[in-house]
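Narrative of activities, Objective 1.

The group set out to show that a structural description can be obtained from nothing but a protein's sequence at a throughput compatible with the screening campaign. Below is one input-output pair from the validation batch, recorded exactly as produced.
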Amino acid sequence: MQLESLYQFLYSVVMSYLVSLKYVSFLLISVILVFRKIIRTVKGGRFRRYSIFIPPILYILFSIAVSYGTSLLGIVLSLIAFVFGIYISFHTTRSIVFFSKNNILYYMRPGWVVAIWSLAFLTRLALILFFPGFNGDLFTVLLFFASGLIIGESFWIVRKNREILSTVRITKIHL
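Output recorded for this entry:
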């Protein structure tokens, strides 16, 4: 009898610790992600090749990681949404701005793309952690759509950078 009550006590302590760890880890991931995205969106990011291609690869990996348990229909819709997101971003991300600080090239991407992905990621992560029985296929599809937007946006940033560099080279040759 005492052994069983000791077991129940230890079980409740461990479970409460794991539940609190889940809340803390979710809060920590949320704060870091949102804070980093706000800073990068407001101040712009330094243009470097790896800063253009590594984050989209990470976005895809995070999207795949949180799509655990998605139905086959959800996976197919996610792939369609991903391709559609790339297509849409080619037509809507023309508002990317390049600027220079101390002869270093920076760029600012539209905040709505980052906001959609962050919201979809945090919502999907919350569903996985706090409501494991809930079908989050809708948020998985939205997450892959936003990942497609970010991939297309990265290609657009590289394309626009090439245009800027070719204009600068032409201007330097004529001077």
